[in-house]
Amino acid sequence: MSTLPADYHMHTPLCRHASGEPQAYAAHALKIGLKEIGFSDHSPMPRDDFDDWRMRQSDLETYVRQVEETRRAFPELTIRLALEVDYLPGQEDWIRDLASRYPWDYFIGSVHYISDSFAIDNPHQLAEWRNREPYEVWRTYFERLTMAADSGLFEIIGHADLCKKFSIYPSQDCTPLFRQFLETARRREVAIELNTAGLRKECREIYPSKAFLQLAASIDVPITFGSDAHAATEPGMDFEAAVQLARACGYTQSCVFAQRRHTFVPL
User: What is the per-residue pLDDT across 114-130, written as a single tens digit (0 to 9) for each?
Assistant: First the structure.
């Protein structure tokens, strides 16, 4: 049986919308044949009341301790310590502060917000989509994603076409938006993830799409894999499909990270 790639996108109950303790995620990962995983829960914001779907500042120490305890409990599994960090313009110093606190293996940079109040993937904010022209949402999203890739703050960009989650697509061609982002990622040596959670959302498609990933491969943007697990049964979910997609787009290797440095491993 071929080895599954590392699952670098997994959450914990500290983000307030996931279930199952870290050791249960690790046990499932081991059961299905994963050799390497990374916990990358939603990082705190400078204000704990910014939203209700991430860990609070006071939880960060607990999070690191739980990952370290899971490492000790599962010595046969390589377990990385990471965060999924929202990129919002103006919060770069906060992200640098988070980066200095613990020996992180990587940061996933994600854009959920295209303004301080509109999270494009929040089902409670679907009315916001109806009040906006889809292309404007997609354009603003990719502008911020490109800024995140160019910031030097992240090793991986998460779910790079998250704006398709609710299957609200512009009529305009978004390829120039994709290309600008991907060329920036390549220049900054930032990876993008194949995130299988999209298969469990309304769009019913891995993030990013095949056309997007084919463009990424042609530009030589490196990749990682993530289940975006929010439950202990989800690590490695649909990874066979993700590997198949990567290979179909021309990828033969993926990235692994340790202490914020990458190496390549064959698919």
Answer: 999 999 999 999 999 99
